[in-house]
Amino acid sequence: MGDKPVFSCRCHVFKIDPNTKKTWIPASDGPIQVSFFFDPSKKAYRIVSIDNGKLVINSTVVAGMTFSRTAQKFGQWSDQRANTVYGVGFSNEDDLTKFADQFEEAKVCVARDALSPVGPPPPIEEDAPRRLLSPGPDQRSNASFESEPVKLRSSESEERSRSSDLSMDDAMKGLSLENDRLKASLNQSQGNLKKWEVELHTLRTNNSRLQSALHENSRNIEEWKTQLLQYREENTKLRARNEELEMEIDNLGHMRNREKMREI
Q1: CA 41 to CA 87: how far, in whole Å?
Q2: What HEC string does the chain produce?
Q3: 144 with 136: CB under 8 angstroms?
Q4: Spatial separation of the C-alpha atoms in residues 115 and 161, rounded to whole Å
Q5: Range from 16-30, 103-117, 212-226 carrying the lowest mean pLDDT
Q6: Which residues does residue 68 pair with via DSSP β-bridges, in sequence order?
């Protein structure tokens, strides 16, 4: 018997950055389907997500896992076997609650199955003496030894749970510090943006004033050129008139000299 789907949903999937262990890396361009599968033969739960033929999530649920709701629409869990932390973001809080409930149900079932006996007890032969039906001292000793693996599995689960909680706490602290740093950077960027907007407005105002002054100077230059041409024409006329007057004065002088000569 293969895996059977027991729960499916659509959400944004993220993985923790393996280098910084602080920032989230989107595992897909948008919301994708995430499903819980149950294998009756192994009594195991898996969380699987495939996007465009690429395996995005393949996480086996174990008793030591913990799903943490770190925001109103976001949750995460640590997978020691995959050596990563998965994050899922939903469009509403109800879908996140359903996912968290399914995760908790799968974890409880795995923990219960780990403590239950594996397989049915061996059949009793008909010819066996009835004294074998009541356990003797040796059988009690064997029974106690048979119960040791269950205790060991329980202690291993507790150790995995503690290590998972510690790694989750470290991841949470790292994410909190990263969020604080991003908020501070965002506030600084917003302050710089306001300063740049003021400087841009000042530059635009100065540019408008310079353009107005340039147009004014251009008009003044045209007026000065016109006046210069007028002055040149007037100067030329005045020179010509001056020459005429000088010629008239010379003629008058010659006429006076002639009259004086006649009187003599």
Answers
A1: 29
A2: CCCEEEEEEEEEEEEECCCCCCCEEECCCCCEEEEEEEECCCCEEEEEEEECCEEEEEEECCCCCCEEEEECCEEEEEECCCCEEEEEECCCHHHHHHHHHHHHHHHHHHHHHHHCCCCCCCCCCCCCCHHHHCCCHHHHHHHHHHHHHHHHHHHHHHHHHHHHHHHHHHHHHHHHHHHHHHHHHHHHHHHHHHHHHHHHHHHHHHHHHHHHHHHHHHHHHHHHHHHHHHHHHHHHHHHHHHHHHHHHHHHHHHHHHHHHHHHC
A3: no
A4: 16
A5: 103-117
A6: 76
What's the token pair of residue 192? Answer: 């710089």
- Structure-block tokens of residue 87: 């994050």
- How many Cβ atoms are within 10 Å of 46's Cβ, its own excluded? 17
pLDDT digits (tens, 9 = 90+) for 196-208: 889 899 999 998 8
Q: Which two tokens mark 121?
A: 């007890």
Nearest CA among 16, 9, 98, 105 for reference residue 61: 105
Q: Which residue has the tokens 């003797």?
A: 136
Mean pLDDT across the chain: 79
